[in-house]
């Protein structure tokens, strides 16, 4: 790509930060769901662990199936404010309301309680999908410069982890401050008020993200009409990097969801230190604040694949130490948590920077730009990974005899330990193998972008009037 072409895709720090606020917003609400909803349902709302695990499976799989449909719809429609940004504007308020409802505890009969949990969780997940897919696709509409994508993604992941920090450390603190405890029926009002605060702030941040971003890469209006739902599935035939990345997402997010869901149980019961729940969560996110700003440098030094592989090895080492060290040795446990988090945070942050590469590759191979559709594909596997992360701890707790709010048996403690360490290690090892097959190196990516820019230039030369300003569909 020429220097002049690259200049057109430079982003200001203000715009990068404004974009990143969208992920902070989503994490304030959805990370709370991923990290605490299982605990909330079993220890506060009073549902059985196997009932919750089944619900997580049903809702997440259903939600994942909806992703390609939403992605197709987003790619086929362009509005006054752009193709992707309007969903941030109009989805903010419903997202906040459903976040509050998910952590509310109406006094219903048992069957109605389950129905209410399904309805609110499904609603929240669907609204999250209609916000998160266009939000993710917005990256590829803002710039084609891979250095800018990595930089913007690093800031985005920094804010995402800030959201994780505010959730993991803040939720137990606020709930306990309001209710006197973060578990049991007496904590219900604390959960509702805390989630109300987080949801309102999240909605405001989504609106700020909308106001600060700009879609620079305009899609030919005929592209919208050409797109079909079946194009989603064709990508798996022509886009090998997307296949590898999709599998990586399901594996890594499955592992992260397992670790996030089970961590509260491990510290509370195995370590017998419920007072350290928020600190365990803090250690899981704090490495992001000094590592993610260094990701562009790491990428230049060792390359994208080696960077991911080293990160995954760190995750495996941390989980392995946690498995072999007695749970009462809390200092070593927390150090192992820190080491594991360093690897997982870098891998989990950097992999988002690879998605725009697969979008450009897909356009190069097919002539169709499937930004939202490809994010929907990633979203499908991301959600399926979250489904695994939701059902695995639930079924493990149930099968090993976990009973909420009481001293656990040795068998239950062993089940919690295995779910905290061995299962994540297996996920990480499989992810290591998978990412080794990612074949889109930097040289090849630059060649693809140059070819797309040349094609765009040829179209503009052939019909300059039509390409001055894209037409708006719908």
3D architecture notes:
The chain has helices at 3-7, 13-43, 49-75, 86-102, 110-142, 146-179, 188-212, 221-226, 231-238, 240-270, 277-285, 288-291, 295-302, 304-324, 330-350, 355-366, 371-399, 410-420, 422-435, 442-462. It is built from 20 helices and no strands. It has 474 residues and is mostly helical.
Give the gist of this structure.
By secondary structure, the chain is mainly α. The protein has 20 helices and no strands.
Low-pLDDT runs of 5+ residues are 1-6, 464-474
Percent range of helical residues: over 70%
| SS summary, helix count | 20
For the biggest sheet, the summary is: none
Give the CA-CA distance, first to last residue.
33 Å
Class of secondary structure makeup: mainly alpha
Mean pLDDT: 85
Given the C-alpha coordinates, what overall shape results?
A: globular
Instruction: Give the DSSP E fraction (strand runs of 2 or more residues).
Output: under 5%
């Amino acid at each position: 790509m020429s220097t002049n072409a690259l200049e057109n895709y430079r982003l200001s720090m203000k715009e990068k930060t404004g974009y990143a606020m969208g992920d902070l917003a989503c994490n304030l609400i959805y990370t709370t769901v991923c990290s605490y909803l299982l605990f909330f349902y079993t220890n506060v709302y009073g549902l059985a662990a196997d009932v919750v695990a089944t619900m997580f499976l049903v809702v997440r799989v259903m939600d994942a199936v909806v992703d390609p449909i939403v992605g197709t719809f987003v790619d086929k429609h362009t509005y006054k404010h752009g193709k992707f940004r309007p969903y941030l504007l109009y989805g903010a308020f419903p997202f906040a309301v459903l976040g509050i409802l998910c952590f509310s505890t109406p006094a219903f009969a048992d069957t109605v309680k389950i129905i209410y949990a399904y309805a609110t969780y499904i609603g929240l997940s669907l609204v999250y999908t209609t916000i998160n897919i266009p939000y993710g696709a917005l990256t590829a509409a803002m710039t084609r410069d891979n250095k800018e994508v990595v930089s913007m993604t690093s800031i985005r992941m920094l804010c995402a982890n800030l959201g994780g920090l505010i959730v993991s450390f803040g939720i137990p603190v606020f709930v306990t401050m309001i209710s006197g405890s973060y578990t049991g029926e007496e904590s219900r009002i604390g959960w509702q008020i805390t989630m109300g605060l987080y949801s309102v702030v999240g909605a405001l941040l989504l609106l700020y993200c909308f106001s600060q971003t700009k879609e620079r890469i305009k899609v030919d209006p005929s592209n919208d009409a050409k797109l079909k739902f079946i194009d989603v599935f064709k990508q798996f035939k022509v886009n090998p990097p997307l296949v590898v990345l999709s599998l990586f997402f399901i594996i890594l997010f499955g592992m992260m969801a397992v670790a996030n869901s089970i961590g509260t149980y491990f510290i509370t019961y195995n370590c017998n230190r419920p007072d350290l729940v928020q600190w365990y969560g803090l250690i899981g996110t704090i490495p992001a604040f000094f590592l993610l700003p260094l990701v562009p440098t790491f990428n230049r030094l060792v390359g994208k694949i080696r960077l991911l592989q080293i990160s995954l090895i760190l995750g495996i080492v941390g989980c392995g130490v946690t498995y072999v060290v007695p749970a009462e040795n809390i200092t070593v446990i927390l150090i192992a948590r820190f080491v594991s988090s360093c690897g997982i945070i870098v891998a989990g942050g950097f992999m988002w920077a690879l998605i725009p590469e697969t979008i450009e590759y897909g356009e190069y191979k097919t002539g169709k730009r499937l930004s939202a559709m490809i994010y929907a594909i990633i979203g499908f596997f991301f959600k399926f990974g979250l489904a695994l992360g939701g059902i695995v701890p639930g079924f493990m707790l149930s099968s090993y005899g976990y009973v909420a709010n009481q001293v656990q048996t040795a068998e239950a403690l062993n089940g919690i330990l295995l779910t905290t360490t061995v299962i994540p290690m297996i996920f990480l090892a499989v992810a290591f193998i998978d990412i080794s097959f990612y074949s889109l190196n930097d040289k090849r990516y630059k060649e693809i972008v140059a070819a797309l820019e040349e094609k765009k230039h040829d179209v503009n030369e052939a019909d300059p009037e039509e390409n001055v300003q894209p037409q708006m569909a719908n």
